[in-house]
Amino acid sequence: MPAAVTTPPTPVDFKTLEFLLVTVDTDRRIATVQLNRPDKLNAISIPLMGELVATLQTLEADASVGCIVLTGNQKAFAAGADIGQMATASAIDMYQLDQFAQWDKIRKIKTPIVAAVNGFCLGGGCELAMTCDMIVAGEGARFGQPEINIGIIPGAGGTQRLTRAVGKAMAMELVLTGRQFSGAEAKQMGLVNRVVPDELVVEEAQTLAAEVAKKSSLALQVAKEAILKAFDTTMEGGLDFERKIFYMLFASHDQKEGMAAFVEKRPPDFKGQ
């Protein structure tokens, strides 16, 4: 019997994809990704994370997208993890599920991501926002890591990213009490970049994203990588990495174009190469 002929898969056109738990809108070089579980206050379920990761990876591969905005709705960016999926799980169940592997994939997305946060941003929602590169918050936003109240601790980076953002003492208070805090307090602690009226959050995040997206996509990607490296290595190791990236960019088209445009007093025409 002859072997079956395998037809190569057809390349996926992102614009034809239809997801249930996230929506995507693209405008110029900005992609706005919205979590879409309003009946559950965008609680982070395994299917939602699967769709979100697939969406972000597809956008990352799209050269026309210079920056991504990730948002929820007016009531909630994401009100935490879907506790119903975990309540009766055993330690072995959680280990084998390995749900946090999806979070690692988000951290590795090269395209810059701006979180636009309204309403509740708690538990896994707060961790998701911190996984992004910048955060714009509404005045009514409520952040927090309340896991301690149900007998666990943050598991998707909350103890690590929050500590790096706000320092040991404040992270201890927030994680050990589980208390919620406002967008203004988050700004004061250095967790968020900007606080604006709730109705302007997505617009402000898109404005910030548009400023980022004007730049060389190649330079943006390696700059993001260099900044994240600061959390993974010593000062000496980080400086060494930064210098190598700096030198490497002198082999790019965008470096030549950017410096020529500066000298000639004209806007640069970056190609991401």
Outline of the structure:
The protein has 273 residues and is of the alpha/beta class. The protein folds into two domains: 200 residues, 2-enoyl-CoA Hydratase, Chain A, domain 1 (Alpha-Beta Complex), CATH 3.90.226; 48 residues, Lyase 2-enoyl-coa Hydratase, Chain  A, domain 2 (Orthogonal Bundle), CATH 1.10.12. The chain is 42% helix and 15% strand.
Mean pLDDT: 89
Q: Name the strands of the widest sheet in spatial order.
A: 1-2-3-5-7-10
- Morphology: globular
CATH superfamily placement of the largest domain: 2-enoyl-CoA Hydratase, Chain A, domain 1
Explain the overall architecture.
It is a single chain. The protein is an alpha/beta fold. The protein folds into two domains: 14-213, 2-enoyl-CoA Hydratase, Chain A, domain 1 (Alpha-Beta Complex), CATH 3.90.226.10; 217-264, Orthogonal Bundle (Lyase 2-enoyl-coa Hydratase, Chain  A, domain 2). Helices cover 42% and strands 15% of the residues. β1 (22-27) and β2 (30-35) form a beta hairpin. It is globular, with a radius of gyration of 20 Å.
Please outline the helices and strands.
Layout lengths: L21 E6 L2 E6 L10 H15 L6 E5 L4 E3 L12 H7 L3 H7 L5 E5 L2 E3 L1 H8 L2 E5 L3 E3 L13 H9 L1 H10 L3 E2 H7 L4 E3 L4 H13 L3 H13 L5 H14 L4 H12 L9
Parallel strand pairs: 2-3, 3-5, 4-6, 5-7, 6-8, 7-10
Antiparallel strand pairs: 1-2, 8-9
Helix pairs in contact: 1-3, 5-6, 9-10
